[in-house]
Design goal:
Strand order of the largest sheet: 3-2-1-4-6-5-7
CATH topology of the largest domain: Spore Coat Polysaccharide Biosynthesis Protein SpsA, Chain A
Oligomer: single chain
Number of domains: 2
Strand content: 5-15%
Structural class: alpha/beta
Shape: globular
CATH architecture of the largest domain: Alpha-Beta Complex
Helix content: 40-55%
Number of helices: 16
Length: 462
Amino acid sequence: MNDFAVVIPAYNEAATIRDIVRRCLAVVPEVIVVDDGSTDDTAERLADLPITLLRHGHNQGKAASLWTGMQAAIAKGARAVITLDGDGQHRPEDIPRLQAAWREHPDDIIIGARLADKAAIPAKRYYANRVANFWIAWAAGYPITDSQSGFRIYPASLLSRIEIAVTPDRGFVFESEILIRAAQQGVYSRPVPIPAIYHQAARPSHFHGVRDIARITRMVAGQLLRHGMNLRGLYHSTLGARLSDSPAVGLDGYAMLGLSTLLILLSGGLTWLGACWHVYRTARDTAHALPDGTLALLPGMRLENGKPGPDYRLRLDQAWRFLKRDPGNRVLILGGYTGAAEVSESAAGRAHLLRQGASEDAIQVEEESRNTLENLRNARKVIQAHGGNVLLISNRYHLARSAALARGLGIAHRLCAAEPSLAMTPGMLARLLKEGFLLHWYHTGRQFARWTGNDKMLARIT
């Protein structure tokens, strides 16, 4: 009995299927191909290979093919099912990387995540995937790095108990819906970075943009409506933590999230746009040049494979310039353990600065917090001991919210942008809109707490 079985759905993949299957067999001896009513010679290309070949009499869609293969794998005793496409977009040689992650977390779904390889992804697909990630993560209630990747490992225990429709109209809905339905059962996904592969001569995608996006949207909307718009899930997916390892927001936090959303809807989005405008102006106008000061405050960021990602490195690079300017300068890095990381955000940032040549005595870390508000609250004692006035370094899109939270907590500060200037890319626009939403939520809660005299709530956010 093998722990793993590979399942490959195939519809008219004669050009690539044999090569993909042979490469899979070099890694995993149990390979199941489901020929979904192909009209070319897909099946014939596999005739002499030691695999299990299942055939649908007519095309039933990707969902049905995956489900057929998954059930066959479970019947063979597999503890986990590896899925990948037959068109060459996924490298079988990356399977061991996913297997290693699954062995550490055998109850989770492991996803081969491509979005870190941004340069290799067509722009339309990249941003479409980012949008899909936002909505599916909201419905699932935790951040999802690449919701549209079909290169995954599913635990057999999940597949044995979950029930999802696999009719032809659900072909490309299945892989999004199973992430949401699994999360409702306490099963989450973990990303493993893989290369993004888009062959110039590849066959046209079976994914039909308007039709299949509409179907996925309808599924996600149904899940959100059935769970009262899942405001708790919106919070956790936005701030970057699973429900199981997130700090408690409290009923008042969720209530204010609902009130904030209601105000946005009642104003036709104007209140949100006002917050976004403030975020944009702060991002545009804040100087990159380092002002005078001896203590820099550096909010951490969610790590990527245990290391600082690009935006976090920009903050750290600015902190390194600050330290080099004067041997007496000090940096306080904020951020605890988030997601599945085995190192805290602040410890990873400290290690990055030490590699640059910073002195150990020049860096202090705070490892208890898991969001910006906690970051700043936990930093107050150090700031007060230092004399009160600090330099707050962050990415441009993050400055307005950081400043609002710092003011609310009574932290005197000056802002410094990590980037030399604001580059208005689609990705930056998405970040500004998200920050506007979070800032709107904070101001809504603060004003409501003041008007109603809710001292307990005010104590949490000011």
